[in-house]
Each structure stands twice: as C-alpha cells, then as structure tokens.
Automatic annotation (TrEMBL):
Family (UniProt): Belongs to the FPP/GGPP synthase family.
Keyword hit for Transferase: yes
Pfam families documented for this protein: polyprenyl_synt
Cofactor: Mg(2+)
Lineage: Eukaryota, Viridiplantae, Streptophyta, Embryophyta, Tracheophyta
Gene3D superfamilies membership: Farnesyl Diphosphate Synthase (1.10.600.10)
Keywords assigned: Isoprene biosynthesis, Magnesium, Metal-binding, Mitochondrion, Transferase
Chief place where the protein resides: mitochondrion
Iron-sulfur is among the record's keywords: no
Name by which UniProt lists this protein: Solanesyl-diphosphate synthase 1, mitochondrial-like isoform X2
GO MF annotation: an example: metal ion binding
Cellular component, GO, one term: transferase complex
Organism of provenance: Phoenix dactylifera (Date palm)
Length: 321
C-alpha cells in the first residue's frame, strides 16, 4: 500500500516502513488485540445490514484498519517533522532532513491518499467518517499547539483537548472502527472507543513526563524538547498550581534558556511530575474498566487478548522510553 510509482516518492513514502525503523507499532498492536478481544457472537439486531462475511474476511478488514491507522500516523509524523524542522526520528535522520521538506510533505500526502483508497474499499461510510474526523483532529491539535494565546498556554483544559486531538483521537476512533466492522452494538463500540481514548491520554501524559525525566527519574534528563519549543505540558501546568510565580515564566514563552532553568527548578520543588503520573494512572484505570465492561466471554483467545489490552495499560504508565 505504501509503494509509489515514481522512485523518489517511493523511497520517501517507504522510509519509515523499513525494517528497524518501523517504530513500536503500538497502534496496530492495540487494534489487532481489540479485534480479537471483540471476537464474540453479536446480537442479531446489531448484525442486520452490516458485514456478514466469514470470520477470516472480517479479520482481514480489521487488519486493513490497523494498516490505515499506521499510515495516517506515519503521514502525521512526516508533516510534524517538517513543521518542527526536526533532525531525527526513530533514531535516524528525519525524512525532511534527508530528502527535504517538499518530498516529506508529498510523501505524507501520498500515504494519506493511499489510506483513503484502502478505507473506501471497506465500503463502510461510518468508518470512513470516523477516520476522516481523526485527520481533522490531528490537524486541529497541531494548529492548537502552534497558535496558543498566553491564557491557553496556562490552561489544563486546553492542554487536554489538544492532547486528545493530537494523540488519543487516532487510537480511540480506530478502536471504535474495529468494533463497528465486527457489527458490534453501539455500547460495545463506545467501550472500544473509551479504551482507546484513555489509553491514548495516558500514553501522552507519560510521554510528557519522559520529556523531562528521560530514562532516569531525575529532572532535566529528558530531551526537554517540549519546553524548549515553548510547549507547556501537564507537569508544568500542575507545578503552576503550586507555584503561581511560574505563570510569568510560562508567559514569556521559554525563549531564553534561563527561563527553562527557572521552570525546571519550580517543577523539581513541585508535585508536577507525580500528579501527571497519577492522572495517567487514572486514565489507564478507566481504560481497564472499559475492557472489564465488555460482554462476558469464555473464549480463550478473547480472554487472552483482553488480558493483553489490560497489560498494555500497565506498560504505558510504567514505560521509561
Ligand atoms: C498529515 C494526518 C496528517 C496530519 C497533519 C502534523 C500534524 C497534522 C499532526 C501531528 C500529529 C502528531 C505528530 C502527533 C503526535 C503523536 C505521537 C504521540 C507520536 C509518537 O508516537 P509513537 O510514540 O511513535 O507511537 P512511533 O515512532 O513508535 O510510531
């Protein structure tokens, strides 16, 4: 699906699908587990009018959602690296730094268009609509991040909304798409969505902690890339509640390295990192509750997949990279 006709575009679009630089493939892993976790009989009323093919065909269609989701994800990374003028991604040179901005943007567009073609082939308008909305959310979240007013930069509500758009919308709506393709009820689709939403939020909250702490627990050991780019995340927002003096520093936009040091100092004295981890754990628990609320099943594969989805929530909040 990612192979283009023109050689330059082909090598650009395939860049992050090559062995060793394919990333964690977190989203397709979650989606295929969700497909197995929901592999149970569906009530006849919900089955009416939806895909009624063989289980194998359903699995293939759900795999297609996992592929589309990863393609949308990689497209967004390519565009993001152009916007951020990034040098590296997944431990190698970012595509913009290797092949230039123009080819990166075009490769992102190409991946998005191939994802659209694959989506259309599933012939399910509700699923098309869900994933089109996800792309809108990615663009909205990115725009929210780069156009903040001083008031928005200090707002937890704004931060969480942006985080949903940039990170959680893709995985939550794709989880819902997996349930819809299986012909599951609205209730089950909402539980799949809730799992993805809360997992995605927990994932990003921990990402925001790791940007400060890196692999060690001490501050300043992360890449500090967010704060250096003037992006205010949950740890600083919580620290601001304890130390309102931080408002002034945040307002100045972290243009000077000394402001970054002052913010780190306050952050170290505050419970900012701890409270962000606690919030991530709350979302992880809500994700577990969504799995626990799924209709009962005694199918061993279904139960193993549900346990794996629960296990992933623990991994997300305990990860160190
Ligand atoms: C072209 C769809 C499209 C969008 C354009 C640039 C943009 C609008 C949106 C940016 C969205 C973005 C980069 C969100 C960050 C998401 C995120 C958590 C990335 C890191 O994901 P990981 O850790 O990375 O899963 P790997 O490398 O493992 O895949």
């Amino acid at each position: 699906m990612v192979v283009a006709e023109v050689p330059k575009l082909a090598s650009a679009a395939e860049y992050f699908f090559k062995m060793g630089v394919e990333g964690k493939r977190f989203r397709p892993t979650v989606l295929l587990l969700m497909a197995s976790a929901l592999n149970m009989p569906i009530p006849q009323s919900a089955a009416d009018g939806v895909f009624g093919g063989l289980p194998k065909e359903l699995r293939t269609r759900q795999q297609c959602i996992a592929e589309i989701t990863e393609m949308i994800h990689v497209a967004s990374l390519l565009h993001d690296d152009v916007l951020d003028d990034a040098d590296t991604r997944r431990g190698i040179g970012s595509l913009n730094s290797v092949m230039g901005n123009k080819l990166s943007v075009l490769a992102g567009d190409f991946l998005l268009s191939r994802a659209c073609v694959a989506l259309a082939s599933l012939k399910n308008t509700e699923v098309v609509s869900l994933l089109a909305t996800v792309v809108e959310h990615l663009v909205t979240g990115e725009t929210m991040q780069m156009t903040t007013t001083s008031e928005q930069r200090s707002s937890m509500e704004y931060y969480l909304q942006k985080t949903y758009y940039k990170t959680a919308s893709l995985i939550s709506n794709s989880c819902k798409a997996i349930a819809l393709l299986a012909g599951q009820t609205a209730e089950v689709s909402v539980l799949a969505y809730d799992y993805g939403r809360n997992l995605g939020l927990a994932y990003q909250l921990i990402d925001d902690v790791l940007d400060f702490t890196g692999t060690s627990a001490s501050l300043g050991k992360g890449s500090l890339s967010d704060i250096r780019h003037g992006i205010v995340t949950a740890p600083i927002l919580f620290a601001m509640e304890e130390f309102p003096q931080l408002h002034e520093v945040v307002d100045r936009g972290f243009d000077s390295p000394s402001d970054v040091d002052i913010a780190l100092d306050y952050l170290g004295k505050s419970r900012g990192i701890e409270r962000t981890r606690e919030l991530a754990a709350e979302h992880a628990n809500r994700a577990v509750e969504a799995i626990d609320a799924l209709p009962e099943s005694d199918d061993e594969d279904v139960l193993i997949s549900r346990r794996a989805l629960v296990d992933l929530t623990h991994r997300v909040i305990t990860r160190t990279k």
